Amino acid sequence: MIEIDGSLYSGSGTILRYAVGLCALLGKELHIKNIRAKGKPPGLRPQHLKSILACNELVEGEIEHAEIGSSILTFKPGKNIKTGEYQWDIGTAGSTTMCCMTVSPVLCFGKGPSKLKISGGLFQDFAPSAFHMEQVLFPQLKKMGIEVDLKIIRPGYVPEGKGIIEVEVQPVRDKLKPISKVLQGKIIELSGISLCSHLEKGRVSERMAESCNYLLKQRGYEIKFNLWYDDSALQKGAALFVCAKTDTGCLIGSDMAGKIGRSSEEIGRYVAYTLLEDLDSKATADRFLSDQLIIYAALAEGVSEYIIPRMTDHIKSNLWLVEEIIGAKTNVSGNHLKIEGVGFKIG
């Protein structure tokens, strides 16, 4: 049985989700304690519970202590991965993308395609945005042999949630390919999405884009924004996303969700500054992608390597998990991250 202390490194729900996802894929029993020890409040929250229950459903496993507030969990996965169509509702504004990230590594090694419909939050702090997942993570995973596509059906924000994403996952044909990107290269395209729901009169999409563009132009960058005015969401909300594509195939993304008391101009400035920071670091994966790729690189056959903007607790957490659960070998020298994958294959 794999024993994991959820208070280490980030002490966040990411440790729980990835541990459950990896153990489901490998068929290993898991016992985790001190779940979300650094969270406020600690323990299982609705979005974490829904993610692990979804993962358990895929492998017909058994879970003990799966309840709101629990600080411990025992997970015994079944032997087979059930692909097909699934619908999950987080029930709150909790992250749909984190639920997707929990089950995707499992489903891509299934025998057939799967289609997911997940309801909840799409844009909030401390979780991957649907834009980043669609425009940065999934395109990079495609280079590793993973075909996952995301479609935003309806935006969802804090506190109501009730947004919808649809995700299609194709089975991996063989072993995953490693990813090797150590040179950032030159920017060949800058694009962005400026979304607001029920806020057109306040010119929120334009103001976020204008604020972001103002700072980027000072550095000589010109960006094309898609202004999206939405009226399908069940509440007011906003999100801004930008992405830099380079001639070496890097995708450097930055985003921020709206929040009561957070101005459009503040969002635009933050997104611009964050993008520039990651570009200036010569990173080949942005601060979000840097930790998201680790799980897949550990499962791949061969050595993956890329440049991170800086070390984070989430990167430390994921490196630790793939060493403990998968047996991958990892090394970080400065900002240069290397992962020797295990060449995982079902059967």
Helix content: 25-40%
Which of globular, elongated, flat, extended, rod-shaped describes the shape? Answer: globular
CATH superfamily placement of the largest domain:
RNA 3'-terminal phosphate cyclase, insert domain
Rg over CA atoms: 19 Å
What fraction of the residues are assigned to beta strands by DSSP?
25-35%
SS-based structural class? alpha/beta
- The topology string of helices and strands comes to EHEHEEEHEHEEEEHEEEHHEHEE
How does this structure look, described?
- The chain has 3 domains: 1-80, SepF-like protein (Translation Initiation Factor IF3), CATH 3.30.110; 81-173, UDP-n-acetylglucosamine1-carboxyvinyl-transferase, Chain; 183-280, Dihydrodipicolinate Reductase, domain 2 (2-Layer Sandwich).
- It is 32% helix and 28% strand.
- It has helices spanning 13-26, 46-59, 96-107, 130-142, 204-218, 264-280, 289-299, 313-326; strands spanning 2-5, 30-33, 62-64, 73-76, 85-89, 114-120, 148-154, 163-169, 180-181, 187-197, 224-230, 237-246, 251-257, 301-307, 329-333, 336-342.
- Helix 1 packs parallel to helix 3 (96-107).
- The mean pLDDT is 96.
In short:
The chain is of the alpha/beta class and 347 residues long.
Search tags:
alpha/beta, Translation Initiation Factor IF3, UDP-n-acetylglucosamine1-carboxyvinyl-transferase, Chain, Dihydrodipicolinate Reductase, domain 2, 4-stranded mixed β-sheet, 8 helices, 16 strands, globular
Per-chain topology:
Layout: E1 2-5, H1 13-26, E2 30-33, H2 46-59, E3 62-64, E4 73-76, E5 85-89, H3 96-107, E6 114-120, H4 130-142, E7 148-154, E8 163-169, E9 180-181, E10 187-197, H5 204-218, E11 224-230, E12 237-246, E13 251-257, H6 264-280, H7 289-299, E14 301-307, H8 313-326, E15 329-333, E16 336-342
Parallel strand pairs: 1-2, 5-6, 9-14, 10-11
Antiparallel strand pairs: 2-4, 3-4, 6-8, 7-8, 10-12, 12-13, 14-16, 15-16
Helix pairs in contact: 1-2, 1-3, 1-8, 2-3, 5-6, 7-8
